[in-house]
Amino acid sequence: MLQKKISNYLSLVTFSHTIFAMPFALIGYFLAVKFGKGSFSWSTMGLVILCMVFARNAAMAFNRFADRYIDSLNPRTAFREIPSGIIKPGSALIFTIINSLLFISATWFINQLTFHLSPVALFIILGYSLTKRFTYFCHFILGLGLSLAPIGAYLAVSGNFFWLPLLYSGIVLLWVSGFDIIYALQDDDFDKKQSLLSIPSRFGRKNAIILSSVLHTFSAILVLITGLVSSVGILYWIGSVIFIGLLIYQHLLVKPNDLSRVNFAFATMNGIASVIFAGFVVTDILIR
Question: CATH fold of 2-287, please?
Answer without folding.
Answer: Tetracycline Repressor; domain 2 (1.10.357)
